[in-house]
């Protein structure tokens, strides 16, 4: 018989604050008031500080000498560099997948992920829609079975989620475009049109609004 996992107060607070950041209840750059949270949750400051420390390690919270703790602000350069990094990972992972004849399993994984993305599009569930939108991309990396690569991706997943949320939250049109781009990537993979896959991934990741003049 499994022993039930005991969730600490710090872990509960961590999930509460993280959820508020990822759903953008706490906006980019917004100050996090420990005293207000302590009063709201009816707990001491210690578990809140511990939770914020963990969120700081994940890059969701930043500390500045004069401003205290704030939700991270994502500049145009931050968005560009993050998109560029994941794009490089995806292209390399897909090439490995194609060269090692792993596309059949990848297609099954992507179809399942896209099915869920469409489901949450219909339900207008913003949080889960973004999760499966980003997880679609993770499926391509997962074909490498490279634990170090996946560990790195998972480490930035909260920031990746936040960036995606910032982009997709602007309009329902962006939600629909995300699905269309994933459908195009999936179709090209099914048809083993490797150059088209790579071009579709590039289009998916480099939005005009994220481009830098560098």
Summary keywords:
single chain; 214 residues; mainly alpha; Arc Repressor Mutant, subunit A; Four Helix Bundle (Hemerythrin (Met), subunit A); two-stranded antiparallel sheet; 9 helices; 70% helix; elongated
The helicity comes to: 55-70%
Sheet of most strands: 2 strands, antiparallel
* H and E string: HHHEEHHHHHH
Q: Residue-averaged pLDDT, rounded?
A: 89
Shape: elongated
Pfam families: FCD (PF07729), GntR (PF00392)
GO molecular function: DNA binding; DNA-binding transcription factor activity
InterPro entries: GntR_C (IPR011711), TF_FadR/GntR_C (IPR008920), Tscrpt_reg_HTH_GntR (IPR000524), WH-like_DNA-bd_sf (IPR036388), WH_DNA-bd_sf (IPR036390)
Organism: Priestia megaterium (Bacillus megaterium)
Give a quick summary of the entry.
InterPro entries: GntR_C (IPR011711), TF_FadR/GntR_C (IPR008920), Tscrpt_reg_HTH_GntR (IPR000524), WH-like_DNA-bd_sf (IPR036388), WH_DNA-bd_sf (IPR036390). Keywords: DNA-binding, Transcription, Transcription regulation. With about 210 residues, the chain is mainly alpha-helical.
């Amino acid at each position: 018989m499994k022993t039930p996992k005991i969730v600490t107060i710090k872990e509960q607070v961590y999930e509460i604050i993280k959820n508020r950041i990822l759903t953008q209840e706490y906006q980019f750059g917004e100050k996090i008031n420990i005293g207000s949270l302590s009063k709201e949750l009816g707990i001491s400051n210690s578990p809140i500080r511990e939770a914020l420390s963990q969120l700081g390690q994940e890059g969701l919270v930043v500390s500045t000498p004069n401003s205290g703790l704030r939700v991270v602000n994502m500049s145009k350069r931050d968005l560009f560099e993050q998109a560029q990094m994941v794009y490089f990972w995806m292209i390399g992972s897909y090439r490995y997948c194609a060269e090692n004849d792993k596309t059949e399993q990848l297609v099954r994984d992507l179809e399942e992920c896209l099915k869920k993305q469409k489901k949450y599009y219909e339900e207008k569930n913003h949080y889960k829609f973004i999760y499966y939108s980003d997880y679609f991309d993770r499926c391509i990396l997962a074909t490498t079975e490279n634990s170090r690569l996946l560990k790195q991706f998972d480490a930035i997943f909260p920031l990746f989620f936040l960036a995606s949320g910032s982009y997709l939250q602007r309009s329902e049109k962006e939600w629909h475009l995300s699905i269309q781009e994933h459908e195009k990537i999936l179709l090209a993979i099914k048809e083993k049109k490797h150059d088209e896959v790579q071009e579709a991934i590039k289009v998916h990741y480099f939005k005009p609004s994220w481009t830098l003049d560098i």
